[in-house]
């Protein structure tokens, strides 16, 4: 089991989401940023699509990032400490909450200036296998004027919605329940880099 601060699990349990600015060492972020930038420069990113199966389509009004899927079983990821951390985290979540998580599905994402991702749920109605979403922000610096906040919506008392806005600051790590937490990426004012993933209870088909 990994030594994640208890507060992360308490927060995941009570709010459905958790955040840490301390668990990801700066070197991990640097090397992942380098990999993602190299892949981007080599033309390995493509426009993210919305919808499922045959109805998948591009709609930058809803979702404006471009992405590059990564296979955690292949180099350079398979030996990278962040991916070992994720595998460990999955095991810890299974031991603590009996979630039956079996795999990680991951992609790098890059939002150009002006783009975001409208309010959505990560778990699709007809495909309930994404259980926990994780995001690591790879940006080198981020200020309050740069936009691109991740907004997390929680159902509060008396049907009131609580909104938390998280800036994609360097090395920030966020996890949330894919089936419960509606969220949104506000339009960014500069290029925004991240690595996004989902713990699933099946074996993934990337795409
Ligand atoms: O980058 C983020 O903050 C969240 C991205 C997201 O919601 C997604 O890719 O499903
Ligand atoms: Fe999402």
TrEMBL record:
| PROSITE patterns, sorted | FE2OG_OXY
Transmembrane region positions?
A: none
All copies of the Fe2OG dioxygenase domain together span 102-201
Alphabetized, the UniProt keywords read: Dioxygenase, Iron, Metal-binding, Oxidoreductase, Vitamin C
This protein's cofactor list reads: L-ascorbate
Q: Which Pfam families does its entry note? A: 2OG-FeII_Oxy_3
According to its UniProt entry, one GO biological process term is:
cellular response to hypoxia
Task: Write out the GO MF terms.
Answer: ferrous iron binding; L-ascorbic acid binding; peptidyl-proline dioxygenase activity
InterPro entries attached to this UniProt entry: HIF_prolyl_hydroxylases, Oxoglu/Fe-dep_dioxygenase_dom, Pro_4_hyd_alph, Pro_4_hyd_alph_FE2OG_OXY
What is the protein named? 2OG-Fe(II) oxygenase
């Amino acid at each position: 089991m990994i030594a994640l601060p208890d507060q992360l699990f308490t927060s995941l349990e009570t709010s459905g989401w958790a955040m840490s600015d301390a668990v990801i060492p700066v070197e991990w972020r640097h090397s992942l940023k380098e990999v993602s930038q190299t892949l981007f420069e080599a033309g390995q990113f493509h426009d993210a699509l919305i919808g499922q199966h045959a109805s998948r389509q591009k709609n930058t009004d809803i979702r404006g990032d471009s992405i590059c899927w990564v296979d955690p079983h292949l180099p350079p990821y398979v030996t990278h400490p962040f991916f070992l951390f994720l595998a460990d985290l999955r095991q810890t979540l299974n031991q603590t909450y009996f979630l039956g998580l079996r795999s990680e599905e991951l992609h790098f994402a890059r939002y150009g200036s002006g783009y975001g991702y409208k309010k959505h749920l990560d778990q699709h109605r007809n495909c309930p296998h994404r259980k926990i979403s994780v995001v690591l922000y790879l940006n080198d610096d981020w200020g309050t004027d740069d936009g691109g906040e991740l907004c997390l919506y929680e159902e509060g008392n008396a049907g009131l919605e609580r909104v938390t806005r998280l800036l994609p600051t360097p090395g920030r790590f966020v996890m949330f329940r894919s089936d419960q937490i509606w969220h949104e990426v506000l339009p960014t004012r500069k290029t925004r880099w991240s690595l996004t993933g989902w713990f699933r209870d099946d074996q993934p088909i990337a795409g």
